[in-house]
User: Fold Alginate biosynthesis protein AlgF from Pseudomonas mandelii PD30.
Amino acid sequence: MNVRMCLWLGLGLVSMGAQAAPEIAQLYAPKLPEGSAWVRVVNPSDTAMQVRVGQGPSFALAASTALASPFQVVDSLQPLQVSINGREIKGLSAPKSAWVTLILDSDPARAPRLVIDPPLRGKDLRAELNVYNLANGCEKAEVKLANGAPVFNQLPFNGQAQRTINPVQATLIATCNENASLPMKLAPFRAGDRYSLFLIGSRQAPRLIGLVDQTAP
Assistant:
């Protein structure tokens, strides 16, 4: 996948200031046990689905309410246990030490698509920004600031891209061809955090949803 990403967010960002060392992100605090992985589930559909990973809690996921479950620890040496609407999905596995995102299909009987996210690389006063193009028919997605400065360019359908940024306040707009999403204001996040952007909907009506990634207690 050839994803061209801009190196800087450009104009229009307001720095939230340097954070003290104790305020490093929630994702940097937990330590994975040997032979484990992080797994979360994403439902880009507005139709709610009840999902459960392993022996963890069950989550009702839908794009209009809660798009993604928290990352939770799983044993990468064992088959991944995932149930959707009470039906167990077989044949999934999570690589050791990986950050895995499971993208649900609109048909709950189909196995989710497994995406292995890039390793965390944010350091100290920077944060991770990840984007996923899940908008049907959107072959090349763009994410820009409200003032037009590019953030991610030429992201293919089902593609994923990552960059590090300084903690900022900004409004983003995604486009598929000439069709633009509604403006989305980044939720507040801190140095060391990991932030996910999900482009959902369709090429004709793209929707951009963002959230600060969380880990299960």
Q: What stands out?
A: Residues 34-117 form one domain. Residues 71 and 157 are 23 Å apart (CA to CA). Residues 1-29 have pLDDT under 50 and may be disordered. The chain has two domains: 4-16+119-212, 34-117.
